[in-house]
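Sequence in, structure out. First:
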Amino acid sequence: MSVQRSTKEVYNKIMKKRLLILALSGIMAAASLTGCSLKGDEEAVTVGDTVLTADAANFYARYIQAQYETYSSAYMGEDMWNSKASEGETYEESVKSSIQEGLETMILLEQHMSEYDISLSDGEKKVIEDTAKEFDEANSLEDKEMVSGEKKAVERVLTLMAVQQRMREAIEAGADTEVSDEEAAQKSMEYVFFSYTSTDESGQSEELGDEEKKELKDKAEKLAKKLKEGGDFAALAKEAETEVSTATFDSETEAPNAELVKAADALKEGEATDVIESDAGCYVAKVTSLLDREATDSKKESIVSERKTELYNTTVEKWREDAKITVNEDVWKKISFKDLTVTMKTEEEVPYADDVKTDDEAQEDEEEEE
């Protein structure tokens, strides 16, 4: 199986917000992480016969760290890495575990490229080389030493990222994309909601009293009765001082309310529900279609996407089970997010990706010229 994509498509995805690690702060002694303490040629992860050295592992870890530092620290706080992620695990430990597993996956994908007739073209390799060179020139020696940003390590990480993108698409191409209307069928309904809470002038919500709730339920029951008799839903809603909303659903849908969906799912097109009461308020709905075309087509896309993801995950997991993976815990202990803060500067475009072609594209251009 062969999957071809242009360099522009691949790298605009991978490098659209390309990392330029510029602003480094924190304990400056953290530079020793890539000096005496962390040796770049140490083995960080070994998958089968493939060794990933500490410098590449550290650079990728800093790449991911920079994304969290830049986009998550604002709402997670300055002590983000010490915060609790799960029972007995800090956020730093959780992220580092994910990073480690991600690198193992990328190496597994690289090892199985031939099975999918995948290889990086000369054009793609040039983009990797140029990107690593640009990173090398944009950052000071001190900064690069702290994040293991030597050109060789950067190129290795970018290569693994490109391979992952290409291999994921190749694997997912084997997923079944045929989905019937019956399997994806989405119905549609119109509904009204009478809320049991009110909002005061300051924006505070307050639950209604029992008498007020009873009045709303009576209003909902009158609307439901008239709707079943063929009344115009919009007009009835206006009369009841509420508005008609729309929703699409199937038997597994839980919004806007699971009991409302269950009641509507049992009806034919044009039929209306009784009043469905919940702790939050009362609902009344009318089924408008047993096959909403737009929602059904969207559901089909969702099903196909789920199949692709499942195929990718199960394929990688099978390879993982069959592979011998060794992790050098001493190296990973030295990669601490607490001792070094890494932020990123992004660029929205990859300036040279438009001008670099894959080998296949170059050959097609030559054929057209002839």
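Second:
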Amino acid sequence: MGRTGELDITEEAAEGTITPEALAAARALIGRKLRPEQYLRDASVDSLTIFANGIGDLNPLFRDVEYARFTRFGGLIAHPCFPWTHHWPGRSYWGLAGVHGFGVAIDCEFYRNLRPGDRTSIWNRVLDVREKESRFSGRMVMQYLESTYVNQRDEVLCRALGLTARHERRASRERGKYREVKTHVYAPEERARIDRMVMTEGSRIRGGEPRYWEEVEVGEAIDEIARGPLSLSDTMAFVIGSGRGAAHGALLRHAAKHPRHYIRNKRAGGGIEYTGIGHHREDFAKEVGVPGMYDYLPQRACWFATAVTNWMGDDAVLKRLRMEARMFNCQGDTTFIGGKVARKYVKDRCALIDIEMRGVNQRGELTSPGFATVMLPSLDTATRIPLDGAVVDLELPAVR
């Protein structure tokens, strides 16, 4: 706090720069454990349902207690990405103060289901810090953070590699890479197609009908889902479902510790806001070089997981999910998420398939390439599919 007792928080976002000293300080954390955020940790029927609502997932396996009783799990299980509510993969407050961060990739391997009554804890570790060139801002820094999520018995639920790109705000704004991008105006037939896809999604969930490994062919397409047009309600629902939020004293205390991560909204009386408010406020998004309000990286990754779990059925296991955000998904954009089977194989007696995934916007642009590995039930009795899919050792290609 300043000498007058006021918080040292400005109306304008800090214009931090990538200096040799700041870069060295960030690299000094490589290998170190980082303190995680403290958000939603306890799983309950209500929290699992609210999270499913927040990502638009209609699968009854994750939200209908009576339905889930008659599955092989014998009860409700969480959406695979629910552990992320405690800490979004890659997200942190570490290093490069005043240099804006955008989540750009998540690569997660899943080991165990989470059920009502479970509690999530996390271990964060810095893996690397690399300087790169970017068309968006010129100079940028990529930070690599590994997050290991465990339950109350110290059993690993999932392990995620999160990538965060740090861009100088002034450089991003002045380069204006997205300056000419306008909110899409949908023709009636375009909007009708999206509405049909969304309204019929529930009827296309595989559910209790097993999808056997032998019945899947390489090149086969998975069912495509639509998410959009993106609205403020969508981004707010994800924040609510993730247990995010702090107000008044709780917010001010955190802002006092990290003043360069917060601003006073000069258009609204000077109220305190986090510098990630561009996800919900168009004018601030433009100040960091984005054409408008945009989605969250883990939000989009959850949509990819939903596309896979809808298709694979209740008896399968999502083993791995990778998603990269190569373009912004802004207010009014729609993401069509699909994929095709790229490989079938058996490893450690488990019947596996790899799926090459794609997120494409309404302009036909590839915004989000992705990848998934699924463990399917097999007609071969020599294979196995345990409730917890931790038995197979995947050969994971690196994310660069």
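Remark: The chain has a mean pLDDT of 91.
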